[in-house]
Amino acid sequence: MSSLELFSLKGRTAVVIGGTGELCGAMAEGFASAGAHVILVGRDPAKADARLAKIKAAGGSGEFRSCEATVKADLIKLRDEILAQHGKIDVLVNGAGVNSPTPFFEIDEAQLDKILTVNIKGVVFGCQVFGEAMVKAGKGSIINLGSESGILPLSRVFTYSASKAAVHNLSKNLAREWAAKGVRVNTLVPGFFPAEQNRKVLTPERVAMILGKTPMNRFGEAKELIGASLLLASDAGSFVTGAEIVVDGGFAAMSI
Description:
Helices cover 43% and strands 15% of the residues. The protein has eight helices and seven strands; from the N terminus they run H-E-H-E-H-E-H-E-H-E-H-E-H-H-E. It has a seven-stranded parallel beta sheet, sandwiched between helices. Strand 4, helix 5 and strand 5 form a beta-alpha-beta unit.
């Protein structure tokens, strides 16, 4: 098998929850370019249409499904519709997420619930619902979006950091549970990529701090997640499970 064939997703169905966002949208484009039929899951039809236009202009195949990622019944309905139409689900990306830079003593219950619900509950339900179909089929790859803050707690994003640490732990736990069942579960860990959910945190002072601890001295571009995501989704990563694949320009390797 050639290297290109190893990374091919031809004939596969990839469900990308959060696919209307910047990072997961770029990953979806990468999956489509590798031959997958991509299903963007989100709540913004306009963003989905723009992403699908790019996918189809490049010769790829995709569609949009509106769904609330934190409502298990909605996810079950979505899964069953996809299985009825496409027959299988080969790849799942759990990429929905929210953040807030609230100082610790000012975090209220409503904000805490919102972040934990989207960032943890949504991932748990996604893994339960789509993982069940994969376990029954005896194959599949789940990619959960982690964060640098799930490994190295970052200031000003207390709840977000805690939620992402939980995602990292869950991914390893499920990888252990499902390894013998043909289902791989990994965490893709972006470093600092300017996106909708973190732009409000990126003050000039914080940008200077981040770049000062990033050996490549720049932010990542969304397209730079494609290579790692293809490794995890394709046969090229057939022996990779329970891993944390960090794409951060060297941030996690920096000390002094």
